[in-house]
Fold each of these.
Amino acid sequence: MQSFYRVVYLRAWQILKSNWRLGFFGLFVATLGLTGDFDAIVNLQSSDIVSTNLISWLNIFKNVTNVNLNWTMLPNIFLFIGILILMAIVLVLAIASQGALINASNQANSKKTLGTSSLFDDLEIGVDKFWPLLSLNLLNKLVGFVFVAGVIVPIVYLLSLTQTNNAMDIIIKIILFFVIVPFTVIISFITRYGYSYIILKKQSTPRALANAWTLFRFNWILSLENALTMLLFTVVYTMALIAASAFLITPFLILGYLVSNVSALGFLILMVVGSICFIALLISAISFFGAYYTIVWTETFLHLTSKKTSLSKIHRLAARHLPRLVE
């Protein structure tokens, strides 16, 4: 039996390698916060575009009644509104790009190639399903925000103030790490599969959530393995990006230091060129990562919903070394 990861990850790479234009969507999808499966464990802050927009609008409604508006504040008000409009545009592009990448991955599987469709054709598919996709993204972020900011952080703070290690503290810790955190992670998986049900199966949001829960329930070990594998890939990819950035910037810094003693203009040109190269590398890396991450999870969904047998690495290792456990 061929390895699940060999099939899914290589297929995702082949799709992206043959269609570099998908990196355009990856750049916007990356703003959604791709490593959200374990944010409740490793990160207590929300930095994705959905959470940022949500928090920004909540802050507006909270502070608008406390502000005394006058004509002198008009330029700042217009600037603030312009920033919010820009963030809303990025949000729409991010959600639409998510749908476009899911659909593109499915097309690559059914037609072996994406054909001659343009970026606007792919983006239109995501725009058509914008509200269902946004509702799942909001559900994922709201659950994470409510449990992390409203439950986990206060509990951790209260436990840090207590000096005794009594039975109640132990019970709270058990509830925290074995009930609340897994729940937020499960919601992340369900919404992730729900995106594909909405785009590929044309299902409504409630039905997509129900089917996504069923899919996760029967494949929870493989889902967790895949999330951990992608988390490891993210760490390795980040380290490689840091190394590549250092390799790219170092020559410019050395040359800039040498040229600065001769020509200030030459130093400025080198710094500008170096900055442009670094920005280009960063944008390219983020675009690739966003597209690849989404395609991997779409390929995972397609593999799990197909008639192919999908066994986790743990199951295959157990079948090889401890066959009686999997009989």
Amino acid sequence: MSGKSKTDVAARTGAKNLAKLCTLCGNKVDVVMAVSPTGKKSMKRLCCDN
């Protein structure tokens, strides 16, 4: 073992930093987790007041 990670950390960081952009306004889309009153979790994308 050479002790070197197999994961390309720079590529993963670059992919994380690429923001998902809204197709309507071009702004960054925020992704949040919403929990319903029944306890069900869902991911929501917030942009343009949608």
Amino acid sequence: MMTVFREIKKHPQNFIILFILFIGISVLLFIFRFDSHSQRRIVYFTAGLYLAWSLFHHYKRGDLSLSIFIEYLLLALLALLVVVATL
């Protein structure tokens, strides 16, 4: 367990995505569980944050390319399609 905290202290930017997905999907969707319009907005916003974080992460690492951008864009769109279709 302590190694996880050491890793978070060493590379906190790598764990931001976990925070984004946990807050965006778990907490907010539970709070707005009776409002499907707000749930869709939360899903759109979370997918946008996921895409922005991944581009920022690869930019900082110096390996951002068009193929990486397309990959993350398609993953975000697939997640949107799956989640919004179930709401």
